Amino acid sequence: MLLEYVAIAVLFVLTAAVGIIAVSLGTIFGPKKETERKQMPYESGMVPIGKGTRRMPVRFYLVAVLFILFDIEVIFFLPWAVSFRNYIAMGKGAFIFIEMLVFIGILLIGYVYAWKKGAFEWE
User: Fold this and answer.
1) CA angle 11-16-17, nearest 5°?
2) pLDDT one-digit tens code per residue, 61-113
3) CA angle 69, 75, 77 (to 5 degrees)
4) pLDDT > 90: what percent of the chain?
5) Closest C-alpha among 71, 77, 69 to residue 103
6) Are 40 and 48 in contact (CB under 8 A)?
7) Does 48 have pLDDT greater than 70?
8) Strand locations in 19-86, DSSP E?
9) Can you tell me whether residue 47 is helix, strand or coil?
């Protein structure tokens, strides 16, 4: 029974070995002379002005999370659309259609809530 998993174990071992070898070769044969210029942060070829880190507004992360959330939920439309014809043939088309309307309604409630809270307004 465990013989079936040998291929996966070999894949993991080979992947780890390739990664370790690549990092080791870069460390062994890579340039080691550190200069002040090499230690500077890279900013599109220009000398950086100010601190290298700055605070990001929370609104940016909120918009990003909302985008991912709604984007992932919209992905569920494709399998539904592909299999909808089969459900019509089985006589369950109306039930599946109403179920999708409920799903879209829940999405719209969340979208309107985020809209009313001002999550989509960019300053």
Assistant:
1) 95
2) 888 888 888 888 888 888 888 888 888 888 888 888 898 899 999 989 988 98
3) 120
4) 22
5) 77
6) yes
7) no
8) none
9) coil
